[in-house]
Each structure stands twice: as structure tokens, then as C-alpha cells.
Queue: 4 jobs
Job 1
Amino acid sequence: MKTRPLILVTNDDGIAAPGMKALVEVAKTLGEVVVVAPDSPQSGQGHAITINAILRLKKVDIFKDIEAYECSGTPVDCVKLAKHKVLHDRQVDLCVSGVNHGSNASINILYSGTMSAAMEASLEGIKSIGFSLLDYSWDADFDSCKPFLKELMVFVLEHGMEHCKLLNVNIPKLKTEELKGFRICRQAEARWIERYVESIDPRGQKYYWLTGEFTNDDKGDDTDVWALENGYISVVPSGHDLTRYEAIESFKALESEVAV
Amino acid sequence: MKTRPLILVTNDDGIAAPGMKALVEVAKTLGEVVVVAPDSPQSGQGHAITINAILRLKKVDIFKDIEAYECSGTPVDCVKLAKHKVLHDRQVDLCVSGVNHGSNASINILYSGTMSAAMEASLEGIKSIGFSLLDYSWDADFDSCKPFLKELMVFVLEHGMEHCKLLNVNIPKLKTEELKGFRICRQAEARWIERYVESIDPRGQKYYWLTGEFTNDDKGDDTDVWALENGYISVVPSGHDLTRYEAIESFKALESEVAV
């Protein structure tokens, strides 16, 4: 580890979110910190980027003695702007995203702006960790998370990351003494059972609002959902290659049998 | 194959895009078609969903004799609304998304609304194909693509899909006689070299606009980028499990050595 590693901090709940504050407070004990985060909540933005509109980037004085910028775009936009307009050629040693207010375990990684920001950094070759606490409340107890945030960041800074550049870390809503430790997992094959609440606006037009419940039929004890339900902090080494290699053979008939 | 399979059609370029029209025209020769697509262009939306705002859904008469709806949300919102507010309990046999104006090969799958819509359907257990033509022009020649769209849709309807529910299909911008056929591939490990164009708005404030070039250092001849550069239609069996299984062992030390 360098004496003062450079740590980029971002999130999807917006630069003023309490989860971001906790992450900054931990990161600054380990290295030089630069924050580039959305100027408004961006939950559910997934890997969205802004290509058909402009972006703003504004230096702000939110965190004492920390270089920080708010950005008008998505979490992924923040990482791209951080790289090109804030950090330029400075080598980033670690990107941390979060701490998200609510779970990003299982398939939530796909919808999560927190995880997409971390993944975007990993696409640039930067070691990245996305953190989430299983508590949607704005008043969630992020202070209790700090020792775990620090241990993971230190581990990655000291050991590096083999075979992947991205960790999806979820912390259960438990008292510290109830936590059993870290557990390295795979992403659970869970899903959302959703519905739309229908209503009528003041002009008489129908509108819809998404709601739903997360459900897990994946009974493996090696999944992140299992870990969280059993008192562990889940750590899923993650990537961006969506190829299903085991399916390639089953489509090979297309190459030979179907005439183009 | 059922006599009249039910085919859901969506995209990210908006319901009025020429690529959508081509896809509908092919799909209706194979089965009953329902279209639910964004009311405006949604490129780069990735897997974004609308959770902090309302959604609108409006029946439109764009395609002759085809049930069609435009939605105010993202491509993923369209698929969720299609399932819950349009199709209800009707079993969808195939979801096709596109034809996208421009490539979604390699890591573009992450940013692509076209592919995220198809992936969302696959998360619901629906066999899905995302189609893209490597021509960003609104006047691109989608008619030449139609035979290939049809062959792939027929193949999936007849053979089903083993080990995956999602295909990422990209078609090179070539004359039909120059095309060499389908090639089953993995996602290339390519990347974008990006920059932000800086300018000043009429009120004197700086703004940024993303631009960049796609570049591929992955020299494998089994990638989608290789296939496209060599005259093939690339077909990548894809999924949504981001776990890097090969990395799990390297983080196991966290479980034992780091005290929580």
C-alpha cells in the first residue's frame, strides 16, 4: 500500500446522504479522498449514462478538508467525470461507492446506481467496492458499519484483487455483537414480485407507481441472501462479463444449420 | 412452437424508431405481437428503473392491427409495465428488443437500454433477444436485417434456449451478400476511450458533454467484436449473474483472518 492511497468516493443516494458521510469518514483515515457524487438521489439508475444531455460538475464544501464535487448526472456519469475532469492522470488506488441505504444483494446489483458506479470504476481497471446497509432509513446506523468498511478497504488496498476488480458488499441490519463476520458468496438467483399501484392525477389521467417485494427461492447456503439472513456481511466478487459460456454450445447449430 | 406464439416487442430508441418497425414487421409473421416501448429515446439508460416518480402508459395506433403502448419510462419500465399492466397472466413466448440503432456488442450491453429491456424479460423467465444494427443512422437499412431477425426468432421459438434466456445479437453494416452467417461468441473485453467536450452555456456556466471512441484490445477470435469485424452476425448467450466465481477463493482470507 502506498503511504497515502488515492480513494475515489461516490454513491447513488446523493452527495448529502448519511451513508456517503460514513464512507468519507472511513476513507480519509486511509488515504487521500476525492468525492464525486450525484447532486440528487439516483437510486435505481442502474448503469445509465447521460449521452443526449449536458452534465454539470460543481465543487462543493460539504466534507471538511475533502475535495468534493456534485454532479448533475447518474452515478456512472460521476465516475466518468471524476476520471476525466477531476482526477485526470492521477492514479486511483480504490473506488468506494455507497454506503447505500438498502440492499444491493442478488439481482439488485443490476438496478443499483451504487453498484454501477463501482462497476464503472472497475471497467477502468480501478479496484472497487460497493457498500450497502440493509436499512432504507435515512437515519440508519452507519456508524456501526465503519469498522467493517475499514477492514474491507484495508484488505483490498493491502492484498489487491485477484480475478476481479469489484466487490458487492452488503451489511445486515444487526447490532455489531450479532454479526458473525464476512462471508464470500455468489449472487443469489432471487427476484422481485412486483406490482404497480394505479391512481388518477388531478387532471383525471391514470398513472402508475412501482412497488414490490424481494423474494428468494435460491436455497443455496453460498449466496449473498443466505449470508445476510444468517448474520454475515456478504461479499460477492463481481464482474461485467455477461456471457453465459455454458450456453454457447447449445446455440452452435445456428452457425451451421441456419442458412443466412 | 405454439401455432401463434405471443411475442413482446420493445426497444430503447422509442416506439417510433425505424428499428422497432422492422422488428414488429418480422414478429407479426410469426405470432401475436404486443408492443410496449418508450415514448421517447432512452439510449444509454442501462438497467435504470423509475422508482421515485410516476409512469404513464398509453395505447397507441402506430402499427396496423398490432396492440401497442407507449410508456413514459425506461426500457426496463416498459417490460415491467408490459408484464403487470398489459399482458397480466398471458404467457409470453418471446421478447424481442430493438432493432437498436448502433452496436451493443461487448461492454455496451451494460449501458444499453435495448439489452436491459431484454434482460429484464429474461429475469422473468421469458426467452429474450436483443437486436442491434451497427449503423447509428435513423435511415439505416433495417429491411436487409429482416431475414436474420426472423431466422433467430424462429430458432429460439423452435429450439428454446438452454442454459440462458438472453441473446445479444449484433448485425454488421454490410450488404446481405457480404454477410458470412451467425457466429456464437463471448462478450469482448473492450472499452471506451472517452472524453468530455466542455462548453459554456448562455448564462456563462460551464457544462460537459460525453463523447468517445470504442476500442478493442481483446484479440480473441471468439468475441463478438471479432465476429462483427469479420463479417458475421454476433450472437452472445448472456445472463445476469455477475459473480466472478474464479475470484471467490482469493477473498476467502477475509472470512478467517479478518476479525469483525
Job 2
Amino acid sequence: MFTIEKKDDKTSARRGILKTAHGDIQTPFFMPIATKGAVKGVTPTELKELGAQIVLGNTYHLLLRPGTELFKQAGGLRGFMKWDKPILTDSGGYQVFSLGKMRKIKPEGVEFRSHLDGQKIMLTPEDSVRAQLAFGSDIIMVLDECAPYPCEYNYAKESIELTTDWARRCKQAVGESKSLLFGIVQGSVYEDLRQKSAQDLVALDFAGYAVGGLAVGEPEEKKLEVLDYTVPLLPEDKPRYLMGEGRPEGILEAVKRGVDMFDCVIPTRNGRHGHLYVGLKLDSFDKIEYKVLRISNEKHREDFTPLDKDCDCYTCQNFTRAYLRHLFVTEDYLGQRLATLHNIRFYMRMMERMREII
Amino acid sequence: MFTIEKKDDKTSARRGILKTAHGDIQTPFFMPIATKGAVKGVTPTELKELGAQIVLGNTYHLLLRPGTELFKQAGGLRGFMKWDKPILTDSGGYQVFSLGKMRKIKPEGVEFRSHLDGQKIMLTPEDSVRAQLAFGSDIIMVLDECAPYPCEYNYAKESIELTTDWARRCKQAVGESKSLLFGIVQGSVYEDLRQKSAQDLVALDFAGYAVGGLAVGEPEEKKLEVLDYTVPLLPEDKPRYLMGEGRPEGILEAVKRGVDMFDCVIPTRNGRHGHLYVGLKLDSFDKIEYKVLRISNEKHREDFTPLDKDCDCYTCQNFTRAYLRHLFVTEDYLGQRLATLHNIRFYMRMMERMREII
């Protein structure tokens, strides 16, 4: 299911292949976010041209609209959005905590009100798995409680017990499905809790393991410290996923520590806001260089050079900074589109570089 | 420059080829609107795939942003937006009347305040031509006064005199350029004024002639009546352009009367609003059938059929009505994009059908 092909000489980085029901994925990799069943503004044809190997769908959003039932007729999420490569879905838990109103965590699951219409919904671990199976996800995440930062020790301790219990129930619910189920290690910034969480999950034997509860506002050093002691707790021969980390330097540090999978809205959301990633320099794991260009800035008004002369995306191959700026200033969504394409390509190129370096 | 290849047996419709500096255009044709230097949300590559032969840019918008100067460095509007086929630009007059504030019509030109920042601007016939030459337009329209409907006889009479005078000045301003300059017949709904306007313009000898001042709110029968007596006043061997008519049945009626060129925001604007043109049936000039589908409607929720089974566009070839509806309901601009592509293709197919019928 997961084969490591090469290990880096100087760091814990590794390169490999993750086999899924709908295709192989070169690791380490980054997943663009198809929040509600589409990477905003981008077609599946374009995603493939950009080198995307897999996209991530959000269970919370898809549960509310269009709802699980529809996916049975639509041929799953892949059939619905016409994406013929692998899909990972999250459990829905993260958005319940960030978007859901009046949420109550109970042993059986999490109760919340939809942010759209206030409808009261109970999401159990079994519900989450059933939804993800209906989506036809290649990689399914267990329902977990993503503790906030900062988080008191006792809260974090109870939280990992709940998360492990839910993980066990998710594993039962998945049954004989070909989908790969991933456990999520929690435990906030407490080493003994991370240890306990990892140990209990590994004993349950998942297809892969995520590090959750990071990239939630903790200081950078803290995050690296947690990664430093958590990643080695995870089985060498299983894929490792750092949820929510999206800054290029954050991804680099995690890859160096042996993480294989990433997702984030950064490239797509920043693209829509006209913040464009250019000038990638990445020759070793010692240093990554790049710039974020604000395309609406007056200084690009008469700049007839490409956005990034080293980029092979459609945007850079065809248009000037002056034209992109004009599209943003005149609020034509072609600008958001071209910016999103470029940013996704930047992330794909960055991951390609990392795989080459290893 | 313009060659008529075939005339319809039963109507005044004709099929031909309009040669421009940047390519030949099969007539009759429809021009998608690239208001501010882009067909909203659509790339030039897609426009070509859809069968667009030419796009229309709005001088008023481009004058204000990014301004004429920039186009000299950008390689004209075609270089700026990377469109290598022909471009027609309007004179700017129409938007001065619809968007500009505090406009004053003077013999030398029209004075107005920008709708963006209130800046006072004087647009003379010479300014309009200079701007359109800076854009590198293949077809340049004279500055005219588009009289509103209803319009008193005396107002309309003075207006055509001004329009003819401005047309004469535009012709002088164009000089030896390879761009084709079109005159615009005005005269509201008064046959003798239309006659006078056409006569005076034809005497000035333009590369083509537009019928202006229609599709401004007059009853349908009135419009056809005006077309009935105005089109025969225009030279047989020059292209004829009905400005602003965009309803399929309106285009059909005009083509039957010998009009060759059309433009309208209808396919693109309606696409963005989720109003989609489907079910084209067009076997003769006697009748055109189609439907406008509101894609957000609940009834499409579980409709897994293509938008239009007879359409060859990317949208119809790949996605279901259920998915398109989902994109509109969740406000992903991929929905607007796919809808716009489809509607443009509908108009292109409709014009292709008309050319085949002739």
C-alpha cells in the first residue's frame, strides 16, 4: 500500500509511492482543497495539467450540501465532480469546531447546528465514516477532537481518550472497504499525551497516521518540537500526514522530519486574494526561497514580464503581470482563476523539487 | 474586404467572409463581449475552442482602466489579453450615455464624469478613434449619439446631424490605418431620418455600417419595422451590424433581413446568473426553438443528465445538471465559468446553424 523508495541522506525525509484504489501517489505530496466538491474555480482537467495527484474534500460541507444520499447516485464525489484520481476526505470534525454553532461533544459523537440553516445535527464516528464511504473516498480520516491551542493538560488528556475511542469505532465502521483509514494523533503540546495517543492508535493498526492539533495557532518552535517527538512515534512503513500545514517553510520542515502528506487552502485562497507565490529556489532542505507578490499593487501596472519566468503554468506562459493586475483591479474573476492555477502549480513544483532532492 | 458567398433563397440573409488584419470571419457572426479586456472568467484559449471568431472590447471601460497609453507597450488589446484573432471596439459613446455621470453633448464631443472616480473627461470623435487605434482594433466604430427610446422627432433629427459630422471626423482621424471603420446609422424610429442618416454615411464611404439606436427598449414590432426599411438603405457589398441585439429570435429576424454582425452581453451575463440556453432547434429561418434553464432550481438537484445532450462544449461533455446546480448553490465561481462557456458555445452553434441554412 505504501512503499518507501528512497530516504534522504541528511534528514528524515523519505520519497515513496502511496497506492490507492484510484491511482498511485508520489510522496511527499500536497493536496489542493476541493472544499465543497470543487477546487474553487478550477476544472478537473486543469488540476491534472497542474500535476495534482489527489484532492481533499470537506465532509462537513458535503454533508450539508448536497448531502450524502446524492453521492450514491452521482458515482461518489469523484463521479460528481468528474475527478478520476484519488480523493481524501476529512472527518467533518474540524469544520464542526470552526463553523458549527452550539456544538456539544458527547461520548457518542458531536452535536452541532449547521452554519447554513441552524439545523441540529449529530455526527458520530460511524456517521462520518458512512459519509466518507458514500463519497467514495480513497483515504478516510477518523473523527477526532482537534483540541485548540492553548489547551490545558487535563482537557487534552480526556480529548485523546475520546479520539482513540472514536478512532476504534471508525475502524469498525469502515469494515472491508478498500478505502484507507487514517488515525489522527492528538495530545496538544504534551509529549506524554502525544506518546499515549500514538501508541493507542498504532495498536489499532491504521493504514496511515495524521498528526492533528497543530497549525492551530501555536508558536512555530512549539510545532517543530511536537513534530520532533511525535513523528518518530509513527510506524516507518505507513504514510504520515500533517493536517493543515500550508506554508512552504512549514511543509519543508515537516518533510525533513519524515512527513509525507499535506493539505491547505493557502495556495487557492491566497490566489483568489491576488497573493501570488513566485521565485521558488529549493536546492536542498537547508533553505527554501520564494516571494509572495501582491498582484494588485500599482507597481505591476506596466510590468509586461510574466508572473514567474521559471513557471510552466498556463498563466505564466501566456500573461503579463500588468494584465493580471488589470484583471484584479477590474474584478474580473478570470484573475482569480489564473492566480489560483499559478499558486497550485507553485505548490506542485515545490513538492516535485522536494521529491527530487530526496 | 467583404465577400458574399451565398444568399438565402427565401430571405435576405447572406453568408460571407469578412477579411480583417488579423483573420477572416465567417458571416453572419456573433461577438462575445470582452468588456474590460477579458470575456469575464474565460481564457482566450477557451474562446477559440468555443468557436469565437472575434470579440468586442468596450472603449469607455478601457479608456478609464488601464488607459490608452498602456496599450502601446502591451502590443494593443490583442497583445494585452493574448487574443490573436480580430477585435472590434465600440466608440465609448454608448457607455458614456449609460454609465457616465453629468454628460454634456457638445459639437466637439461628449463631456462626462467617470463612474469610477468622478474625473471629468472629454471624448471627441478623434479621441475615440485614437483610443481604438491604440487598442489595435480590427474594426473601429465611429463615435455616435445613441438616441434613447422614445425620442422626439426634432431631437432625433439634430442627433443624426451630429452623428454624421462626428462620423466624418472619425474617418479623417483613422487616416491610412488598416483598421476597418464602421459608420452608425441613427434616426430613432423615423423612416425619413434613417434614410437621411444612411444616405449621408454611405456618401462618406465606410468599410461597414451599423444600425444603432435599436435594442434600447422599443417594442419588437417597431424594431423590425425600422430594420425593414433601414437595412435596404445600406450597401449590399458591405457588412451590416445590428448593435446590441442579443436575443436568439432577434438575431434570427435580423439575419433574415440581411444583417451580418451581432454582439451582446446576454450569453455571458445570463451564464453568470445561472440562466442557461439549451435545446437549440433551428432548421430554417421560419422558427428557432430553445429553452432557458435556471440551473439553481431545486428540480435539477438530482438530475444527472448533461446540461444539453446535443452540445459539444466542455461543460456538457463533462458535468451533470446536478453538479452545475451544486456549484451555483454553493457559490463556487467554477459554476459561472462552466455556464458562461456553455452559453457562448450555444450562441456560436446558433450562428453556425444560420450559416449552414443560408
Job 3
Amino acid sequence: MGVGPADVAGDAFQDLMPFNHCWGCGADNPAGLRLKSRWSPDDPEVALAAFRPRAEHMAGPRHVLNGGIIATILDCHGVCTSVADAYRREGRAIGRGDTIWFATGSLDVRYLAPVPVDAAVELRARVIEHGERKTVVDCTLVAAADVCAPSIRGACSPSVAAGSE
Amino acid sequence: MGVGPADVAGDAFQDLMPFNHCWGCGADNPAGLRLKSRWSPDDPEVALAAFRPRAEHMAGPRHVLNGGIIATILDCHGVCTSVADAYRREGRAIGRGDTIWFATGSLDVRYLAPVPVDAAVELRARVIEHGERKTVVDCTLVAAADVCAPSIRGACSPSVAAGSE
């Protein structure tokens, strides 16, 4: 357990991505969640992120993590894994050369079990399909007790315009 | 256009639901988005909500609404429409008698077009399937220019425990 910054090597994807003002993960958005994703040191095909919710991120009941926050961090971790994967396939460091960006085309979340709001959660993502116009990422949220919580497939279309601002 | 509080009759679902601390829509969560949903005055099967994003709710590019925020308000509007529908089917006002609550089982969002962050969005939900253990809600987000943006089907399972806190 414990996928924190000390456990995974290298700078976070988000810290290397230019023009990322995203509420969920943008290094350039001080009011956002500021999710950080990195390649796993144990499996180069897997990207990891840890997220510690704030108390206000509760669902209807106070002790459960909000489903919208869960969807947000799954989406951000999936998109940023797509971006990091695309740079890697081109043999470039993230943020070097022409900007690569993806926009989510669809987001399917299965909520399998309640996630406690008072502990860090782990996210694990893997690109399972990549093409000219679509990349598909499997992303899973694991709660503190090793119970798999939601999982997701996010289909991301490469986006050119997003990096231009 | 303009589905605001003045355009739809009655108190918001969320203001009548007890124990709702939800980050997306809870009246009891001052730090959250505080989404408000109401039955349409024109179609009793449709629930409406208006949401005005804050600037910080941007996606990677500054002018686009974040996909996680979109998922959050679609989810909240869908769940609260399920709750309101369930009370109505039992002939009770929302919040009267035993508490009815739903937890989202799955959330499928299709992002059809970018949504501007600097204008209010409209949400329209309709229960399309209801059973003992599952309710399905179609929910659509409409952006300022009348362009349909994402749509969703959220399958919500009735939850007993959520109302007990």
C-alpha cells in the first residue's frame, strides 16, 4: 500500500504538461485537486496516483467519498496517462516539442463499493488501446483496505486545440 | 433558455432531502457545488437544474468546463431525480416519513462537445427505468448555445444506509 510521491520515480505527468489548468489535476490551477500521476517503478505500463480527499469531498453521508470526485480523479488520471503514453511512444519527454493533449470522449464508471473519505485512495491506469483517433485507458480506484472500488474505461480522442492556449 | 430558480416551481429536491452532505448538491455542504434540482413546470416527468460554474472549474484549457465537474453535476442531478421520483411514486413529499436515498451504481458520460466555463449550463433528467433494486436515469447537459453536450445514464441502486447518518 501507500503509493505516494516517495514510492514512484520521476516528476509527475501533470508537472511536465504545459497549459494544464484542469480543476482536477492542473499544476496551473491552485484551487483544484492537483492530482499527480507517475509511471509505476514496478511496471512501466502502469501509471499510479495517490489522492487524499478533503472532508468536504463527502457524498450524501459524511464518511463516503463523493462519486463526482471519484469520476474526476479517474478521468484526470486516465487522460494524463494517455498523454504520457503518447509522448513516450514518440520517444519524447512529456512537454518537449509539440504539445500533445487528449480530451475525454466517454467516461464509464462502475461504483462497486463505498470509498471512505478519510483515507488516501490509489489510482492505477493502463492504456489498453491506442489508435490515430482514440485511446482507451483502464483505470481503477483502490481504497485503503485493498478493496477495489470503481473502475473505468475512458476513451480519449487526441485533441490539438487544447494545448494551444 | 434560462432554467433558473424563478423558472421552475417548488423547493429544490436537495433542500428537502435530509442528511445530504454531498459535495455536488448537498444543502448541508457549504463548500460544495450546491446544485439545485426541480421538476419542470412544463413536463412533470422531467427534472431541471441550472449550474453556473466558477472560473476554477476549467478543464486543461481555461475556457472549457472540466469533465469531472460535468460528471459530478450529471450524477447529482440524476440521483436526486431518482429520489424525488421515488417519493412521488409513494405519494409522499420529499423528506417526509422514512428517508429514501439512492447510491449511484454506474455512470456513463458521453462528452459530445466542449462546454464553455463562463456560462450557466442546464441539466435535464428523466427516469427511464425503475425497479426494486435499480433505477435508470437519462440526464443531458445543455450548454448556453442550445448545443447538447454530454448525456448520461446513471443506474442507481436504492440505498438504505445512506439516510441513516
Job 4
Amino acid sequence: MSNDNTVLIVGSVALDSVETPAGRVERALGGAAVYSSVAASFFAPVRLVGVVGEDFPKEHLEFLESRGIDTRGLEVVPDGKTFHWKGAYRDDLNQAETIATELNVFQSFKPKLPEDYRDSQFVFLANIDPDLQLDVLDQVRRPKLTACDTMNFWIAGKKAALLEVLRRVDVAFMNDAEARQLTGESNLNRAANEIHRLGPKYVVVKKGEHGAVMYCDQSMCFTAASYPLFDVVDPTGAGDSFAGGFMGYIARIGEVNETNLRRAVIYGSTLASFDVQDFSLNRFKHLTMKEINGRYEEFRQIVSFEPLQ
Amino acid sequence: MSNDNTVLIVGSVALDSVETPAGRVERALGGAAVYSSVAASFFAPVRLVGVVGEDFPKEHLEFLESRGIDTRGLEVVPDGKTFHWKGAYRDDLNQAETIATELNVFQSFKPKLPEDYRDSQFVFLANIDPDLQLDVLDQVRRPKLTACDTMNFWIAGKKAALLEVLRRVDVAFMNDAEARQLTGESNLNRAANEIHRLGPKYVVVKKGEHGAVMYCDQSMCFTAASYPLFDVVDPTGAGDSFAGGFMGYIARIGEVNETNLRRAVIYGSTLASFDVQDFSLNRFKHLTMKEINGRYEEFRQIVSFEPLQ
């Protein structure tokens, strides 16, 4: 397989127990690297780097492979137990409440890239310990585009390593609360500008039900609506699906410029909007490119207006 | 003056004492009807209905008249004191904290429309007691478009009258918290849909720093970004300026259809974005149509992306 348009994704592979007002699932497929890999797989070949225990159901592995995801980089720890996250969303679907985090095999994870992964051109460092994100950056050779995501836990506990990651990536994905937490700026435009100055050429702030905003060259250049959903079943993985759709689309097109990045934001928003319509990755199991492109066009319709008369 | 494209606006005229992280003003010009009238005046002639006391500074009256606003409907109560609102915005500029509300002459206000006001074609019922909004609806003859705004206080305390207003207007403006409060729906799309069913053909939900959304015919039809501001000086009047810009533009164009309503939402967003860049109505005092149209085009640029390839 050519390295030209392959997306390398490293991050958590998990079993999630999630409760929302719409219902619950127990030990369903989850994890940042899984959501982003499957979302990216609609556009480009994906290589996954992560770790699971021997308890990781074979059907999940088969699902990933059925999506064209290369799982040679997915380490299986003999006798190990897979990372398990237990959480709940109450009335405010923008806010997850963590009930339990069992790191298990994730605790001693050291990403080791298979040799041919090291030439991957598009690299997405999904949410994991920034020290591990740096490990991966050390192992890849000359990527065309690198991107990272993170979370409040690392901003609070591993800020120095995270700042080093930000110095080295092209794109930083973050949600609005994280952008504010990292910078101490309550104005989101100022916060994004500050992150921009830390290194990334592009800062993409995910705002959940309020859409997403991209900053290029120290100013806000693009804003995407959120798709108007009447029923959000499970918000888990929305941000990861966003990043995966974004990276997959850019890898497919191959050329990193603002026109394509705007489209990538819309494809990211599209994948996120499908993700939340069912638990776990269930919606992706029967999602088609026709549906994706249909929603892409809907995103155009809901923001279109006539120029000045 | 022809009634064809005149906007009739009724609501509060106030003196505001406001503190924000950027500074403070004492007894500055304010009130929902003032913000919306001045915003509308950039597009169409405006007739103002409200009440002030004898203490209302002459310079404010002169400013309104300099904007082409007909103030014959602004009652001056001899020996009365003008409505005074005292509020503060802390770090979260989306949330006003009311320190004092002195209703004064507003307490016994009964809107009385001058005879020639009654044929106004575009009617905006800014935030006041819904019973007074109904009074005004009873006094106008055959308006082409009616719209209302409201606030949490009336939703909690005068719901029946407010529901009657909603049954009788074409457009309901509301912020996201109010839409949720009125309907008990936490999903904003469901909330707006519910309000739609209460009567208004168009529901426009203002989301502050997250832009605005319009619902037509029971589904979300249009979403506008918020303008990326790095310095918000004073959020007071943003929602009123939005509604005023919206109504003024529709009145100027004269034809109520979805194409024009989308543009109206953008002009509303534009006026709101200028309003918050200074205290009171100060930014409007030196605002030009060239600046307004420039920002309108910026709103297009920040949401534009290419169609499917």
C-alpha cells in the first residue's frame, strides 16, 4: 500500500460503558483512535497504533479490518485487559461524567510503529499522554501533515509535554473548554490565537452543538455550523470522529491548503453528526458515502445566503 | 412619510449603568427599544413607542432623531424618572447579572400609538410585558410582518400572555436559554420546533458568541456564525440590535421570503457584532453602511466552502 494518502492514527482503543438519556451500552467498542480511524476510513486508508488486551472481542477487530484499517500496529497484550471507560451523559449532552477509568493495558503502553508505518504522510495523534504523542512524532519520518488532540487531564497534569507537542504539529484540535483551560483566556478567539502562537499553523476548535471554528494565520478563517439534530443518542466519540473525518479527507485530497481544510472541517462535522446518532460506532457500520455527501451539501444549504445587492 | 417600509418598535427606553471587564458607564442610553430602533434605522425609517421621565437627557432624544427615528410615540412623563437598569458582566460575557431594576415611569406604561403609526407594515415588539405587546398588536391594523422578543422574567411570570403573543406574531426572537426555559426541551432544535408549533412562522434563536439559528416550517433552515471578536466591550443590547437589524433590513427590502430572511439574520448578526464593541450605543454613533456591508461580506467569507467535487 502506498504511503501517499494513508493516515496514521495513534491513541486509545477502548471498551466503553455509556449511559445517556437515550439508553445504555456495556463494554461497547470505543476509544479516540477507534472513532477517528473509522471516520477517516471513509476517505483514505488508515493505520492504527494502539493497545488492547486479550479480552478485546474478535468482532471489533474484524470490523476495523472490514473498514480497510491496517491493525498491525494494534498491540495485543497477552492476558491483558483492554482499557475500559465508564461514563454518563445527563441532560446536558455536551458534558460527559466519568464514572470509572480502568487503564489496564493502556497504563504501560509504548507506541511502536511498524517500519512501513514510519513513512505515513498524514499523522493524527488522538488523545493520549502527550509523552506518547511525542514518541510517535519521533518515529515518523517526513509527514506532510501532523495533528493532535488532547483533553483537560493532560492540560492540567502534563502541560510541558503538551506544549512540546503543540510546537511540533501542524494542526491542533481542541474543544472550547480545553482551549480556554490551556490559555486562561475566556474569549475563544483570543484563546485560539494564543494556541496558534504556541506552534500549530491551524487551530480547530470543536464546540459540540455549536459547530466548529478553524483559525489560520492568527485569525479565525472559517466557521462551520453544527448539523441540526433532533435526537442525539450518544455524544461519545464526536470530537474524535470530527478529527478522523478531517484527516481522512485531507489525506484523500493530498494537498493541504485553506480551500481543502475548509472542506475537511465540513467532512469532520459530518462524520461527528452521524456518530452521535447511535451508540458506540453503530451508525458508522451502515453509513455510506452517499449519505456523507448528502449531509455535506446540507451543511452548505444551512449556511448559504446571497451576497450584497 | 409612507408606511410602506417603516418599522414600528415598542419596548423599553432606559438609562443603563453597566460594568464589564472593559470598564463601566453610568446612566448611559439603553433599553431594548432604543438598541433595536437605532439598529433598524440603518435600513429603514423607524417609529418608536416607549416612555421616559423628565430626566431623560435631551442629547439622547436628539441622537434618536438624528438617526431618523420618529419619537412622537415616546411619551415623556412630567416629573417622572426614566427606567434604570444596573447590571454587570463578569468573566462570562454571555451572562448579565442584574444589580438593580428601577422601573420608575415604566411601571404604569400603557403604549398608545399615534394614529398614523397604526398602519405600520413592520412591527417589532421588543422585550416588555407581553400584555403590553398584545395591546400594541390590537392597535396596529394590517402589518406585513410582526415580531416579538421576550425574556426569562416573562416566561416565568406571564406565560399565558406570552403564549398569546406567540400565537399572533410571525417571527419570535429568543435566546437559547429562553427557548429551553419556555419549552422545557434541552435540545435546542426540539425547543425551536416546539415554539414554532405555538404560532410563529419563523423562530430565530440568538446564541450570543455562537451565532444565531433560524427555523422555518418546523425545521432549522439557516444558521449564522458569530463574528469573531477579540474584544467584547459590553454585550448589552446585542440581542436587541440583532432584532433591529433584522427588522430594518426586511422592511427596507419589503418582501418577506426565505432568501431575504437569511440576509436579515446576517444583517442582524452584523449590527449585534458592532454593538458589543463599545458601551451603550456608542459604536452606532459613528457606524457607516460601508462598514456594515463590509462585515456582511466577511460573514460570507467565514462560512464559505466549495461544493462536492
